[in-house]
Automatic annotation (TrEMBL):
This is Sister chromatid cohesion protein. InterPro entries: ARM-like, ARM-type_fold, Pds5. GO terms for cellular component: chromatin; nucleus. It comes from the Eukaryota. Keywords: Cell cycle, Cell division, Mitosis, Nucleus. Residues 29-41, 590-611, 1328-1349 have a biased composition (Acidic residues). Coiled coil: none annotated. One of its GO terms (biological process) is cell division. Residues 12-22 have a biased composition (Basic residues). It is found in: Nucleus. Its main location: nucleus.
């Protein structure tokens, strides 16, 4: 048989290979080096496989593998020219023959095989042993029935190729195509028997055959046209590996498969499918089998050779699955998507042509296609092994554009994918951040839910401040489920981010969620949600850790959050008490029923008496049932709205059926034990919610949260007090005061509601009161005791135990006399709370009167301490507090109030004594007010009335004199502002007091108003406004005092003006709410002028008319507009009262000022009020009919005297009204009332400016930008031309204006319709002057620019003055006018 020439040399491989055709010495040295390397690799492989083998098949394979290595390395290789004659005879073609006996043949084949293994590589062997090549490919050998023969023949052929190999990367084909196919089939058949391990020697030979094939790379001679043979080889390898289950064969098989892929131009789809099938199987089973590792190794090493064929196969499958009508559409799509995902995990370069195809499908019109591709690409991008985001930047941009897809489900998937990408590749966060920011404001609720969940699951260190702010916005989302999910996720983040300033809003926003009024029906759900978040998420269950976490949270609370937290505790305690009340009522009713049954059986009475008793019993049952129903209704109100029906049924069943009370009732009763610990509470909770029905389980869960101590319990309180005591004793910590303060604040908050939990630690609290010397901390612990130890003395006397109250008595008395003023006040309050009336009076007697010797310092009493300069302030504070808290002590011991008052006036409040600090003076004023109130309670005589009048005159004189400080930042020790503030507060207390209602004159009213908005000290204005607001809010003052508060909106300080506006609007709403709850009160009622905000207007007009600036001929109309706009905006909101307001203004225009009958200032303000009211009601629909009821005008305005009144002369800048006419008898008839309504008293230069009037405070000056000289010249020319062209129209406008004025004088209009028309006329007049004002402003700006240039030039002349610098421009003169 003639051998075929090197056919494989014609193949062009994709990769440039190195040639090893060198001289014989080089070949020998290289072959020796390769043998040594192979030997070391095999030894390493042997050791590793020994360690990894655990199953029996693996052990057998490992042993065989080791035997193969030993067999290969036990002989040294020799050159074929050095062979002996005997060895040469073995390589002769006649040495082996198919006709030989089987044993002889096998023996000789083995000798040939072993000899060939010893021979070194030499390409010239082909010429020497050509006949042997032809002999071994005999069909009788390759198709021999004995397997051992076939194994040796295959091994001999491979060894011959090894020995005569001249190029290891491209062997020569020595045979024809038919022979080569038969050889490949023979070798493939032998390799398929690798899993048969019965015969050890044969298995070793086959394994050695596999290695030699990988070394020789014989399979690269397979022609491209032989697709079936190529596929058979690949499938055979996968079958062997899958059946064996180990990794022993993967290394040589990988070498063979990679070498074949390198030289194959067109890889058949069968081979591609064989490579991809293990990847898909791994995806389903989640098990990395041996065939998976084989595919992964082959693909990883043949990326550049297989990428084209692999991508063609995947793209073909992708395009086929686009047709949804085909069968198994979903399965095929999942299959190809899983394949792509697994290939991406190996190397993203394998998808060089697939990724652009996926990018095209991102734009598909089918939502399902886009969604599937997004899920696939998201998984590819988020794989940790993948780097697709950086490798395919254009595709990544197209992928991220799907964040704005029209379908919400696709946006949801994109957001979830973004979270996975960020977790796998944190460097991509900046790229995705903007997209997440946009989706936070998505219109779809589900999208917002997902984006919140994704962002909060990202590492907090990655989240930027912008994204944190967006998350905070979502905590106030319009949808409740979004808000609660966001808060829940943020609470889960809190332990990790509580030290980060950008996250410190979490606990405040959570607790404020209780006050969310966006959905009033969900208010109870909000409270329950907040409580569950605190208990389940933020607070751990261990008492010490729980308290630490609670203190950390409490330290972050702001004022509003503390109020909300207090409200949470209040509702919780209320629910617990209501449940306890229900069980008490049930117990009483059951006990009464049992008593009735026993009485009926034991007593036999007459029939009439029995009937009477039965009626009484029925009535009692009805009353009891009504009482129980009332309690149930209270419980239902505290449960979430959607569970009201289930809650009613639950409690009704408990009341009606005794059997139903059973386990649940007993468990709930246990939970009402105030001394339960955390572990006991958890056990009780699990017992309550152990129901199998889901609805009832949720209901019981909510009920358990209402009943149980989920936040504050006995362990918390005990540990908290222990920590406070240890910190008070041990002051080594640098910030011990702040630590104590936080704990005291928390203890003070829970003390009023959990007295039963704090009272067991009363001895510790008492010791802290004695040992704390810090003023602030002392007051705090005393306030805690005051809230927790209510009626402590009575309880201790009943229990007959050692009393804490007795031990505290002397300590409290000493602090009242010797402590600071704040300590003294706190101690008096504590005395009032914990002691009985008898003990109170006894303590007061010791404090106020002489007992024992007067020589000792300890026997000096409060009244004596008034003359002691060191203890004077404390004594006055204590007396003030005693007069307020325990007024009986003054009445009981006949304290001489007159002598105290005289001492205060003569020694402390004397105008000639300047040595007394103003702090003492303010305290003395407070004591004087308390003395006045004490006198009024005991009854006023002429003498006591005179003493009271003296105090009131002093207060009023102090306010009138106004010893003001003009520097707001004066921190001098003697702060004179305290005196003014004390006087103002004293006037308010005397006015609002029920026992002594001070009646203020009109002048006093004006002086009080000046203190609100004219006092130069901002501190005084703020304090006065705050005091007035608090008194109005508590309904201690009538609505007319709200007009004083309203004047503060024109304050020059913008923050204070905004605060006063907020106060005023709140008071108006507060009085409106009161009116809505009072059915018998309307505008016609006698007391309406004290309650209805509409009656503020006369007082507002009166106060503005008597403004000091207005009286000095320099009225600030803009400030007056601010007052009126604020008032009318609030008064007309959601109320149809315009008809009443217009008529009220007309009524006031018919009256005169009670203080200045000739003044027309109030008429000007009335016209301004009408104009502002008209502007505020523009675009609103209201009743145009005149108000039919009566109106109340205060005594500040008097009815005009028609007979004797001289016609009032209006302001010199006002139009003069016609006020006099003669009747038929010649007597003068005053028509001033009608003309006062008809005439517009506003000055000509007045203009409504609602924009500036509604912007409170002094507006910031805007710097003028200097114009170019050429631009100024052009504007001057343009104005000259326009003024020349507009001369005629301006004359026409003047004539029209005069005619309109004449028409207005002649027309007689009703008062109701006249005022809006006047306002409209004023608005038209102001619009007509807009053009003229614009021209004047332009002229002013030009002249000011010229002045600035002139002044800038004059700066270079030193002290020399310029005429332009000292003169006043015409524009400035106009502005002054």
């Amino acid at each position: 048989m003639a051998p075929r020439k090197a056919a494989a040399t014609k193949k062009q491989t994709p990769r440039k290979r190195k040639s090893v055709s060198k001289k014989s010495k080089d070949v020998e040295s290289s072959s020796e080096q390769e043998e040594s390397e192979n030997e070391s690799e095999e030894n390493t492989k042997k050791d590793s496989d020994k360690k990894s083998s655990s199953n029996k098949p693996e052990e057998v394979s490992q042993q065989l593998f080791s035997a193969s290595l030993m067999n290969q390395t036990q002989h040294e290789q020799v050159d074929h020219r050095d062979l002996t004659d005997e060895e040469l005879s073995i390589l002769d073609e006649d040495y082996i023959s198919p006709k030989q006996a089987i044993n002889t043949l096998i023996s000789r084949l083995e000798e040939v095989y072993k000899l060939l293994k010893k021979i070194k590589q030499d390409e010239k062997m082909f010429d020497t042993y050509d006949n042997l090549f032809d002999a071994v490919v005999n069909k009788k050998f390759t198709d021999h029935k004995d397997g051992r023969v076939r194994t040796f023949i295959a091994s001999i052929i491979v060894e011959m190729y090894r020995c005569m190999l001249h190029d290891p990367d491209q062997p020569d084909a020595r045979y024809t195509d038919a022979d080569m196919i038969r050889i490949f089939n023979l070798i493939t058949d032998e390799l398929s028997q690798l899993t048969v391990k019965d015969k050890k020697e044969q298995h070793v030979s086959r394994y050695h055959l596999l290695e030699r094939v990988a070394e020789v790379k014989l399979f690269i001679l397979v022609s491209d046209e032989k697709f079936d043979l190529l596929e058979r080889i690949f499938k055979t390898f996968y079958e062997v590996v899958s059946e064996d289950g180990t990794l022993h064969y993967t290394i040589p098989m990988t070498e063979i498969m990679v070498s074949m892929l390198e030289v194959t131009d067109a890889i058949p789809f069968g081979v591609t499918e064989a490579l991809l099938t293990p990847l898909v199987r791994k995806r389903k089973t989640k098990v990395e089998s041996a065939d998976y590792h084989l595919s992964r190794s082959v693909l990883d090493r043949s990326v550049e050779y297989i990428v084209q064929s692999l991508d063609d196969y995947i793209i073909k499958e992708l395009r086929e699955i686009k047709n949804k009508k085909k069968k198994n559409y979903n399965e095929k799509r999942a299959l190809i998507y899983n394949t792509i995902s697994e290939v991406n995990l190996i190397d993203s370069k394998l998808l060089l042509y697939v990724v652009p195809e996926l990018a095209l499908q991102l734009k598909d019109e089918d939502d399902g296609v886009r969604l599937g591709v997004i899920q696939l690409m998201g998984e590819m991008f988020s794989a940790r092994e993948s780097n697709l985001v950086n490798e395919y930047q254009t595709v990544a941009d197209e992928f991220f554009s799907r964040f704005s897809d029209k379908e919400p489900k696709i946006r949801v998937q994109m957001i979830r994918t973004a979270g996975d990408i960020i977790k796998a590749h944190p460097s991509c966060y900046k790229m995705i951040e903007e997209k997440l920011l946009e989706r936070c404001d998505d219109y779809d609720e589900k999208v917002r839910l997902v984006v919140v969940d994704v962002i909060t699951n990202i590492s907090p260190t990655l989240i930027s401040e912008k994204l944190v702010n967006k998350i905070r916005e979502r905590c106030r989302d319009k949808k409740q489920n979004v808000r609660e999910l966001c808060l829940h996720q943020c609470c889960k983040l809190w332990p990790a981010v509580q030290q980060d300033p950008k996250w410190n809003w979490i606990v405040n926003d959570l607790i404020k969620y209780m006050a969310d009024r966006s959905d009033p029906s969900s208010e109870k759900d909000h409270r329950l949600f907040v409580e569950q978040m605190l208990d389940r998420v933020l607070l751990p269950q261990e008492p010490k850790l729980r308290l630490k976490a609670l203190l950390d949270i409490f330290a972050q609370f702001d004022t509003l959050s503390k109020t909300a937290f207090k409200q949470l505790i209040f509702f919780k305690v209320g629910y617990q008490l209501t449940v306890g009340k229900l069980f008490e009522s049930l117990f009483e009713s059951n006990q009464e029923e049992e008593e009735e049954d026993t009485e009926m059986t034991n007593q036999e009475e007459e029939q009439d008496e029995e009937n009477t008793q039965q009626l009484e019993k029925k009535q009692k049952k009805k009353d009891k049932k009504a009482q129980l129903d009332l309690i149930v209704n209270q419980l239902i109100k505290l449960q979430p709205t959607q569970q009201e029906a289930a809650t009613r049924k639950f409690w009704t069943d408990i009341i009606g059926d005794k059997d139903e009370q059973g386990r649940i009732v007993r468990t709930i009763k246990k939970s009402l034990n105030w001394n339960s610990t955390v572990k006991e509470i958890q056990e009780i909770k699990s017992q309550i919610i152990s129901e199998k029905k889901q609805d009832k389980k949720i209901l019981l869960n909510n009920i358990s949260y209402g009943v149980l101590h989920t936040i504050i319990d006995l362990d918390i309180c005990t540990e908290l007090i222990n920590q406070c005591e240890s910190l008070v004793v041990d002051k080594n910590a640098s910030d011990w005061k702040s630590l104590v303060k936080i704990r005291f604040n928390l203890l003070d908050m829970i003390a009023p509601y959990y007295k039963h939990l704090i009272k067991p630690s009363k001895l510790q609290i008492s010791n802290m009161i004695k040992s704390i010397h810090d003023d602030e901390l002392s007051c705090m612990i005393i306030d805690i005791a005051r809230n927790a130890f209510v009626d402590l003395e009575e309880e201790e006397s009943k229990s007959k135990q050692e009393t804490v109250s007795y031990d505290l008595e002397q300590v409290l008395m000493d602090m009242v006399k010797k402590g600071s003023p704040s300590q003294s006040k706190s101690c008096v309050n504590l005395i009032d709370k914990i002691y009985a009336d008898v003990s109170k009076l006894s303590i007061c007697e010791k404090l106020l009167t002489h007992v024992g010797d007067d020589d000792g310092e300890d026997d000096r009493h409060l009244i004596e301490l008034l003359k002691d300069s060191e203890s004077q302030l404390t004594a006055m504070s204590a007396l003030c507090e005693l007069a307020t808290t325990i007024p009986k002590c003054f009445e009981e011991f006949n304290i001489d109030l007159d002598s105290i008052q005289d001492y205060l006036f003569d020694d402390l409040l004397s105008p000639t004594d300047n040595d007394v600090s103003n702090h003492k003076k303010s305290t003395a004023i407070q004591l004087l007010v308390r003395i006045v109130l004490l006198r009024s309670k005991s009854g006023l005589s002429d003498t006591s009335q005179q003493q009271n009048d003296k105090v009131i005159r002093f207060l009023q004189d102090q306010i009138k004199s106004q010893h003001f400080i003009h520097d707001d930042d004066d921190d001098d020790e003697d702060d004179q502002q305290l005196v003014i503030m004390a006087c103002f507060d004293g006037i308010l207390q005397l006015t609002e007091s029920q026992g002594y209602q001070l009646k203020l004159s009109m002048q006093d009213f004006i002086h009080l108003s000046h203190l609100i908005y004219r006092h130069p000290s901002l501190r005084v204005r703020r304090s006065s406004s705050r005091s007035l607001f608090e008194a109005l809010k508590q309904m201690k003052l009538t609505i007319r005092f709200a007009s004083i508060l309203l004047l503060g909106v024109c304050d020059s300080n913008q923050d204070h003006a905004q605060l006063v506006k907020k106060y005023s609007c709140a008071i108006i709403q507060h009085f409106r709410a009161l009116i809505s709850k009072t059915t018998s009160l309307d505008l016609d009622s006698k007391m309406s002028y004290e309650t209805y905000p509409e009656y503020m207007l006369p007082y507002v007009i009166f106060l503005i008319a008597h403004d000091s600036n207005y009286q000095n001929e320099s009225p600030s109309f803009l400030n007056y507009q601010k007052i009126l706009f604020t008032y009318f905006d609030a008064i007309t909101k959601n109320t149809d009262n315009m008809s009443f307001m217009y008529q009220l203004i007309n009524k006031m225009k018919q009256r005169t000022d009670a203080l200045d009958a000739d003044s027309t200032r109030h008429l000007v303000i009335c016209d301004m009020a009408a104009a502002v009211l008209h502007r505020c009601t523009e675009g609103k629909s209201y009743d145009t009919k005149p108000y039919p009821g009566r109106m109340f005008i205060p005594g500040f305005f008097k009815v005009r005297d028609v007979a004797n009144q001289v016609p009032a002369t209006p302001h010199k800048t006002h139009m003069t009204p016609k006020v006099v006419n003669n009747n038929s008898d010649g007597a003068a008839v005053d028509l001033s009332a009608i003309d006062a309504i008809k005439t517009l008293y506003l000055p000509k230069e007045f203009k409504l400016n609602d924009r500036m009037a509604r912007s409170l405070g002094v507006p910031a000056a805007t710097p003028r930008r200097k114009k170019n000289a050429a631009v100024v010249t052009k504007e001057k020319k343009r104005r000259k031309k326009s003024s020349a062209g507009d001369a005629t129209p301006s004359k026409k406008r003047t004539k029209k204006k005069k005619s309109d004025d004449d028409d207005d004088d002649d027309d007689i209009v009703s008062p109701r319709s006249r005022l809006p028309r006047s306002a409209k006329k004023n608005e038209t007049y102001s619009d007509r002057e807009d053009d003229e004002e614009e021209e004047e402003e332009e002229e002013e700006s030009e002249e000011e620019e010229e002045e600035e240039d002139t002044v800038a030039k004059n700066l270079d002349f030193g002290d020399k003055e310029s005429p332009a610098a000292t003169s006043t421009s015409p524009a400035r003169k106009k502005r002054r006018i």
